[in-house]
Amino acid sequence: MVQSDEIDLPTSLGYLLKEAATALRVAMEDALRPLELTVTAYSCLEILAQRPGSSNSDLARGAFVTRQSMNVLLQTLEREGLVTRPTTAVEGRVLPVTLTDAGQRRREHASAVVKAVEDRMLAELSAHERAQAFDVLSRMTRALREG
């Protein structure tokens, strides 16, 4: 029997959210593997497509990793010819990162693959349910960030 101050996993929304997030990540990793991308690498490419010239710190925050982890990833993406960074900072210590043409092509292919995973995840929801889920998750996230 679960006491009132203990988490009951079968009815815990937090546990269900973590389970859903894990299932989504596994599905995305499986879908991206043939493209030789991880979820974090894909996230980096997607952020750069939407915000060209992002810094290492911006990319790390957007991909939910440390700056050190992002720097290692960027070195790999540079070697693969998917991104470029100037050798010296234009302003301060910031080295703006940009996608190469090859990076843009890989990102476009990866985006289609990730969209298919998201479509599969949402397939059983109506448009109204999708909007409700988005609203509820947004409010929950905001409450945690503001609280």
Descriptive report:
Helix 1 packs across helix 5 and helix 3 crosses helix 4. It is globular and about 55 Å long. The mean pLDDT is 93. The protein is an all-alpha fold. The chain contains 6 helices and 2 strands. The longest helix is centred in the last third of the chain and has 22 residues. The protein has a two-stranded antiparallel ribbon with strand order 1-2.
Protein topology:
Blueprint: H1 13-32, H2 39-50, H3 56-63, H4 67-79, E1 83-84, E2 98-99, H5 101-122, H6 127-146
Antiparallel strand pairs: 1-2
Helix pairs in contact: 1-5, 2-3, 2-5, 3-4
Q: Helix coverage percent of residues? A: 55-70%
Mean pLDDT: 93
Strand content: under 5%
Give the number of helices: 6
Rg, Å, rounded? 18 Å
Q: Write the element-wise H/E pattern from the N-terminal end onward.
A: HHHHEEHH
Low-confidence stretches: none
Number of E-state strands: 2
Shape: globular
Structural class assignment: mainly alpha
Strand adjacency order, main sheet: 1-2
Separation of the first and last Cα atoms: 30 Å
User: Mind summarizing the main beta sheet?
Assistant: 2 strands, antiparallel
Comma- or semicolon-separated keywords:
mainly alpha, two-stranded antiparallel ribbon, globular, 147 residues, 2 strands
